[in-house]
Amino acid sequence: GSKAAMxxxxxxxxxxxxGTRLNPFSTLPAYGINYFPSQAKLIQVDINEARIxxxxxxxxxxxxxxxxxxxxxxxxxxxxxxDVDRGNREALIKTTK
Length: 97
Prior knowledge:
By secondary structure, the protein is α/β, with parallel strands linked by helices.
């Protein structure tokens, strides 16, 4: 992943992993950052139930099609969801390569 993504994930209190196996190699430290926060709650969505929680412990595991689950979540969110601190996150992405 990108360094900017790793910086943002390291600050997360909740991670929504849609359709990713979170294999051990993709969650290892990189760029000198141990980025995967140990205290964050993980919500993992995967079509293959055997992959859920295989690498990282999950707070919520959902077996299903990632696109369908994402659409269901989006339908429940307010239009302003994610607006808090958006400017700082966007600035971090622009400045971190």
